[in-house]
Write a structure and sequence with these properties.
mainly beta; 23 strands; binds beta-D-galactopyranose
Length: 334
């Protein structure tokens, strides 16, 4: 079905080319990020990388996320890895995690929001993920490790970071390369913590923002840190908000809406903010998930370039756009 859709859209582009004789236009449309639509990978299958995160290794971006494919074994949880040079066309690499209940958490155990960090010293890829039982009471982070970015990750352990509850996690790598884990600690709020030298543990708390937010994401842009989070409404969308600070440790400003509150973040929930620095410009991308709780494999993505600067951040309404990772320029397709 998905493959057919992909074929149909390829045919559509070919027809468009013939009809308009405009190769450049047809190519531009093909190279467009289309928020809310199916996002076919190199096999024509919708990208399965929900609640995901991205790292750049050399010139390649790797997108990791929850693989909720319909034909996965329901007893297992999967994390998929995709590669891209332009953030638009994604090649499926591997189901880097396929595990049955690693910690005896019982039926319907939870493995969500995987995020991978590369440790230059140990030359290992280290994955953090939310690990839980079906009722979300364990509230732990899991850690897995691999020698290759898209290899089979080895699950190591789970724990409560700094002895706090941890449900949704987010990842932040600062401009100096330092890695941080963002985690939602239900009794207290939104925490930012550094990792140990080998990245296998959570080292120190950098900040507790006493605000109940999940889907935590951070970016450093023009001398300011911006934090985005969503309210705690499960799979249902809510108005995501942002705050700013000159230092990761705060003080943080009040949280403000990132979009008209009645739009509920256009049906999405934050998972990461990705900064693309090019030779002409910088684009800061909001990466959100549009969850379909009953048909998770069909959950969509809302990626849009943010309007950001001088302490303000705004998510434009979802519309197709193009990105040039070399120049760092994003363009909304009219
Ligand atoms: C959301 C969270 C998702 C998932 C869901 C389960 O709040 O962001 O990652 O855990 O709850 O209801």
């Amino acid at each position: 079905m998905m493959k057919d859709l992909f074929k149909i859209s390829s045919l559509f582009f070919a027809a468009l080319m013939l009809l308009t004789g405009n190769h450049a236009l047809a190519q531009a449309l093909k190279d467009t990020i289309k928020p809310t639509e199916l996002w076919p990978d190199n096999n024509g299958k919708h990208v399965e990388a929900h609640g995901g995160g991205i790292i750049k290794v050399g010139k390649t971006y790797y997108w990791f996320g929850e693989d909720r494919s319909k034909d996965n074994d329901p007893e297992k949880r999967y994390v998929a890895c995709y590669a891209s040079k332009d953030l638009v066309h994604w090649t499926f690499r591997n189901q880097v995690i396929k595990t049955a209940d690693p910690d005896n958490l019982g039926k319907n155990f939870v493995l969500e929001r995987p995020k991978v960090f590369y440790n230059k010293k140990t030359k290992k890829y280290v994955m953090y993920m939310h690990i839980d039982d079906a009722s979300y009471k364990m509230a732990r982070v899991g850690v897995a490790i691999c020698d290759k970015v898209d290899g089979d990750y080895k699950y190591l352990k789970s724990f409560r970071p700094l002895n706090h509850e941890s449900r949704d996690i987010g990842q932040f790598i600062d401009d100096d390369g330092m890695p941080y884990l963002i985690f939602e600690d239900r009794p207290y709020g939104f925490r930012i913590a550094s990792l140990t030298d080998d990245y296998l543990g959570v080292d120190k708390e950098i900040c507790l923002i006493p605000k109940h937010m999940e889907g935590g994401a951070l970016v450093h842009y023009n001398g300011l840190y911006y934090a985005i989070g969503s309210s705690l409404t499960g799979w249902n969308a809510n108005p995501n908000k942002y705050a700013t600070a000159t230092s990761l440790s705060g003080p943080w400003s009040e949280f403000k809406d990132i979009a008209p509150p009645e739009a509920n973040t256009y049906g999405s929930q934050s998972t990461m903010i990705l900064k693309v620095v090019g030779d002409k410009s910088t684009t800061v991308i909001f990466m959100g998930d549009i969850w379909e709780p009953k048909t998770q494999w069909d959950s969509r993505y809302l990626w849009m370039p943010l309007q950001i600067g001088d302490g303000k951040l705004w998510l434009p309404k979802p519309q197709p756009w193009t990105l040039n990772v070399k120049t760092g320029e994003a363009k909304i397709v009219d």
